[in-house]
Amino acid sequence: MDKKVSYKKVNTKIRNRVNSLLKYDENALDIFNAISKGKNTYVRLNRREDSSFDVTWINLIEDTIPALDTILSNPKSVIKVEGNIVPIELSKKISSESVMHLASHSQYVKTINPDGSVVPEKILNQTAEDNIKIYENRLVATLIKRLSLFLQKRYDYIVKYSPLLDYETLYVKNETDLNESHLVIETKIKFSRHAMDRNDIDTHNYIQRIADMMRYVKAFSRSNFMKSFVKERDVRLPIIQTNILRKNPYYKKCYKLFVFIEKYNRIGINFLINEEYKDIDSEDKHDIDRMVFDNFLALKGTDSKKVIKKSGYTYAPKILRNSDDELFDFYDFRSDPEFIRVDDAFRNDTLKSIPKELKAKPKEADIKARPKDYKEKDKKIYEQKKIDDLLKRKKKEELELRKTIQAQVAAEKKKAAEEAALRKKEQEKIEEDRLRKMREKIVKDASKSK
Questions:
Q1: Is residue 378 part of a domain?
Q2: 69: pLDDT confidence band, cut at 50, 70 and 90?
Q3: pLDDT for 146-193, tens place per residue?
Q4: Is 149 domain-assigned?
Q5: Neighbours of 162 (CB within 10 A)
Q6: 264: helix, coil or strand?
Q7: What is the percent of the chain with per-residue pLDDT over 90, rounded to a whole number?
Q8: Rounded to an integer, what distance in angstroms lies between the CA atom of residue 181 and that of residue 140?
Q9: Where does the pLDDT of residue 15 fall: very low under 50, low under 70, confident under 90, or very high at 90 and above?
Q10: Is the pLDDT higher at 33 or at 264?
């Protein structure tokens, strides 16, 4: 809605209209008084959202990006020498290593001239090339992969959840006895709006910095450097401390960032929620009672003419038996049954009451020396076994009851889905009938025009 509405003006008009009705209509006044004097519950909640940002990881990544750019432009490498035995005609360069290899492998000598010169048939040919697939560069390649996912997760979350909202919630429940009937009305109104001028500028700059870093990392991911490490294994913690990682400033920054993002598990934004429950004054209470009054009048005192679906059920409640039904003792025939507790606390108390100094396997002499104590111990052990058995039965019955409840919930959900599908089908039928009538009218009008 582009046009702003004055809530106060509309509220004043509705209040005047209801007050006029209550002034001149006794039935309306009786209903309103019954609602006002009923059992009313009012809850008004104001919720205010605020946020704060952790820029530690952003500063660290921004400081490391120039180092990554430098490494990708001129990565460290080692000279890799490869030697192959090739025919003498294909040899491009003969080095001292080639001569030494030929001296120790006479099978590659073709002929020896009278002047003593040697004509080889095959010879060792060596080629040297720069190899960038060293451990330090593998760490840099792994860092770029992890950075891409690291930034994307936080960017998506912050873009989705950083906009702040303020909520005002009003919950009203009224229970009233009216005309020999029990009336229950529950209403919940939730009003939300964007938070005004708290962190909008900071949030925008925060998101923009993350987006800029993502563009850099995406460019790094498409570089020739990364193409060289497509089939290479990623580096994992712990990192081997090589000389390059310790002394080269660019690789050192990459190492520090790698260790940081591997251990950093926060999103980077914290939300502060302030909730205030406010009291309802007499004027607000009158307005709320008026709203409940309007809701009641919406029933119009008549049944709805259109029946969407008709169903009936017969419920036969049952009382489930469990182990608690057997857990009671009688002191005498006049007393009420006293239920025995069957829980961990009672079990622990029972165990504590058994003297620890009594032997687990007493001899006959021990029993004769302390017959009363051992008799009491046997009694406690028997009671403990009984309690343990009952506990097992109780847990089993609770599990079966939970399964039964879950099955009932699933059945109710299925029933609700079927009802929703039926309502949708009815609505589609109504729409089809309406469209058919419109088409017939259009054809009829067109025929008249001709």
A1: yes
A2: very high
A3: 999 999 998 998 888 877 778 888 888 888 887 777 878 788 888 887
A4: yes
A5: 18
A6: coil
A7: 12
A8: 76
A9: confident
A10: 264
Q: Are residues 92 and 149 in the same domain?
A: no
Looking at residue 340, the DSSP 8-state letter turns out to be P
Q: 428 or 130: which carries more pLDDT confidence?
A: 428
pTM over 0.90: no
The greatest distance separating any two alpha carbons of the chain, rounded to the nearest whole angstrom, comes to: 140
| Predicted local confidence at residue 329, as pLDDT | 46
**Strongest mean pLDDT among 215-229, 280-294, 341-355, 423-437:** 215-229
Of 277, 276, 271, residue with least CA distance to 49: 271
Rg (CA), the chain: 43
**Cβ pair 301, 183 in contact under 8 A:** no
Q: What is the spatial distance between Cα 264 and Cα 291, in angstroms, rounded to a whole number?
A: 51
Residue 234 and residue 250 in one domain: yes
Q: CA 213 to CA 209: how far, in whole Å? A: 6
Is the same domain home to 142 and 277? yes
165 and 276 Cβ atoms separated by less than 8 Å: no
- Count up the domains in the chain and report the number: 3
Residue 340 lies in a domain: yes
Q: Is residue 300 included in any domain, yes or no? A: no
Question: What are the two backbone dihedrals, phi and then psi, of residue 90, each rounded to the nearest 5 degrees?
Answer: -95, -5
Tell me the C-alpha to C-alpha distance, in Å, between residue 251 and each of 68, 93, 136: 8, 36, 7
How would DSSP label each residue in 177-236?
EETTEEEEEEEEEEEEEEPPSSSHHHHHHHHHHHHHHHHHHHHHHTSHHHHTTTTSPPP-
Say if residue 100 is in the same domain as residue 182: no
Specify whether 346 is located in the same domain as 248.
no
Does residue 62 sit in the same domain as residue 85? no
Q: Which domain holds residue 85?
A: 78-131
**244 and 352 co-located in one domain:** no
Secondary structure of residue 271 in the 3-state scheme: strand
56 with 92, same domain: the answer is no
Residue 427: the pLDDT is 83
Tell me which of 131, 146, 168 is where a domain ends: 131
b vs e for 365-404, b when ≥16 Cβ sit within 10 Å of the residue's Cβ? eeeeebeebbeebeeeeeeeeebeebbeebeeeeeeeeee
Which pLDDT does position 334 carry in this prediction?
A: 44
Please state the length of the chain. 450
Helical (H) or strand (E) element with 273: strand 269-278
The band of 271, judged by pLDDT with boundaries at 50, 70 and 90, is confident
